[in-house]
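In this section we walk through a basic example: taking a raw amino acid sequence and producing a predicted 3D structure, encoded as discrete structure tokens. The instruction is simple. Fold the sequence below.
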Amino acid sequence: MGEYGYENTPKEVMIILSKRIVALRKQLKMTQKELSERSGVAYASVRKFETTGIISLESLLKICETLGRLQEFESILLPDELERMKKLFD
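The resulting token sequence is shown next.
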């Protein structure tokens, strides 16, 4: 449980995402250096992200693309279904 009740804090989400990236990278038997080279993200940025959760959005998206998970970002922050339906009929 996060600081704000059942939701995690932004920092907690950053750490969760970094741990998931590490797990995916290792599942693909890829080193940090290989991930850096394949994604075009600086090695220092990959290392920093994996230990602190801090990374730019662009670098995170490049890493996710390299790991085959970029499409998952396309489904976040969508408007509510009701709002989408209203826009269709406006």
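Looking at the output, two observations stand out. The mean pLDDT is 89. The CA atoms of residues 2 and 10 lie 9 Å apart. In the next section we compare this with other chains.
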